[in-house]
From TrEMBL:
Belongs to the methyl-coenzyme M reductase beta subunit family. It catalyses: coenzyme B + methyl-coenzyme M = methane + coenzyme M-coenzyme B heterodisulfide. The gene is mcrB. GO terms for molecular function: coenzyme-B sulfoethylthiotransferase activity. This is coenzyme-B sulfoethylthiotransferase. Residues 4-185 form the Methyl-coenzyme M reductase beta subunit N-terminal domain. Keywords: Methanogenesis, Transferase. Pfam families: MCR_beta, MCR_beta_N.
Length: 442
């Protein structure tokens, strides 16, 4: 692989570390990215308040599933600490392992982090979900001394409609990772996390939202086989420049165009910066005066173009304080960029094509696809290899409440509980510092 060095900045445009080898942000090497993935894998949210209300109504197993005469009045919220202690004793494998069970929202929810050993020694990534569900069920039954006729209601409230359905329909335990049956194919699990969840977890910080989305998407590219071999560097550069604000490129483009700019001015700024940095150079001028450009390093050009795409999204959606135009930016930023330089735009046309279908789903005949419903596994957004989800996340973060289904309502207890984890809430600075810590060893 070509030796690349990058400077890493935080979400405020402040330098964290300079001359960092590109491989220091590799999803398989960067300690913070590894921590992000492992935290997501071993963490489960428990909605005690929701489960308490459901049991009081006898409503378990999801929509329209109510069993008259089978209600249970259990003070789960008031006994949250006892329930947390019970879960920890059961899911813990060794006395001093890294099991954590946190009581949040005054007992309304729990954040369970099963011990890492349960993840590393399991073939199936859903082992933390099943372990937590089993432990929660047993703890509640024992704590409230329930009999054999009452216990099944608790089991149904915890596990939902499983095993009748494979997706834990109606369950009051939640994981960011969907069950395998809901993944599009090999390696898709991290792409199946809704972008709304990512935005809420990062507490609507646009750069951090884009960073977390990009980290998950490009980590998925490794697992899908896209960021392996000849294309590894393409994806690492995309991760660095678009998602991690390498060389402060995204921040500076937004700052330059944020006050009076547009998608078109971001294109102009990006092209100017690419010429100044030697990423592209003139390739000739036609009789009409139209000048084309060439790139000696297409992977680096793609990374610059991707950074401009995120900056254009932030300028456009930020100006109107609304998320809906991210689909239009996906089309017209790339269209303008290709016309300006005569080179392929982001992801070699896949982002522009995604934007066309994205616009159809959200604005045309279909009309039901607000950006809040998308994820990298969605039929609309799966086509681009890691470059669209960061822009959707940033657009949602900049929205001022223009959609009926808010990201907070969609993310629910998962968004609230996972936002308490610093490495997920503020990934860009954690990844930069972690890259600095290994810069001499990669």
């Amino acid at each position: 692989m070509k030796e690349d060095k990058i400077d890493l900045y935080d979400d405020r445009g402040r330098l964290v570390e300079s001359d960092v080898p590109l491989r220091a942000v590799h999803p398989l090497l960067n300690p913070a990215i590894i921590e992000i993935k492992m935290t997501i894998a071993r963490s489960v949210a428990v909605d005690l308040e929701g489960m308490q209300r459901a049991l009081e109504r006898g409503a378990v197993g999801g929509s329209k599933c109510v069993i008259p005469g089978k209600s249970l009045k259990l003070d789960l919220v008031g006994n949250a600490h006892a329930i947390a202690d019970g879960i920890k004793k059961i899911v813990q494998v060794k006395k001093d392992d890294d099991t954590e069970v946190q009581v949040l929202e005054n007992g309304k929810s729990l954040l369970v982090k099963v011990p890492t050993i349960r993840v590393l020694n399991s073939i199936e990534y859903t082992a933390p979900i099943t372990a937590t569900a089993a432990a929660l069920t047993e703890t509640i039954i024992n704590l409230f001394n329930l009999d054999m006729f009452q216990a099944p209601m608790v089991k149904a409230a915890v596990w939902g409609r499983y095993p009748q359905t494979m997706n834990l329909m109606g369950a009051y335990i939640k994981s960011l990772l969907s069950v395998p049956q809901e993944n599009e194919g090999l390696g898709y699990v991290m792409r199946n996390i809704p972008v709304s969840y990512i935005t809420v977890i990062t507490r609507r910080n646009a750069i951090n939202a884009a960073a977390l989305a990009g980290i998950l998407e490009q980590s998925a590219m490794v697992e899908m086989g896209d960021a392996v071999g000849s294309f590894e560097r393409l994806h690492l550069l995309g991760l660095a420049f678009q998602a991690l604000n390498a060389n402060n490129l995204v921040y500076e483009l937004v700052k330059e165009n944020g006050k009076n700019g547009s998608v078109g001015t971001v294109v102009a700024s990006l092209v100017k910066r690419a010429i100044e940095d030697g990423v592209i150079e003139p390739n000739g001028t036609s009789k009409s005066g139209y000048r084309t450009y060439k790139a000696k390093d297409m992977a680096l050009w793609n990374a610059y173009a991707a950074a401009g795409y995120l900056a254009a999204t932030m300028v456009n959606c930020g100006a109107q304080r609304a998320m809906q135009s991210v689909s239009a930016v996906s089309v017209y930023y790339n269209d303008l960029l290709e016309r300006q330089v005569g080179l392929p735009a982001v992801d070699f046309g896949r982002v522009q094509g995604t934007g066309v279908e994205f616009s159809f789903f959200s604005h045309s005949i279909y009309g039901g696809g607000s950006p809040v419903v998308f994820h990298g596994n969605h039929i609309v957004t799966r086509h681009s290899k890691g470059f669209v989800a960061p822009c959707i996340a940033a657009a949602i973060a900049l929205d001022a409440g223009t959609v009926h289904y808010t990201p907070e309502a969609i993310a629910g207890v998962l968004g609230r509980t996972f936002s308490t984890i610093p490495v997920l809430r503020e990934p860009i600075v954690h990844v930069a510092k972690a890259a600095a810590s290994i810069k001499g060893a990669v």
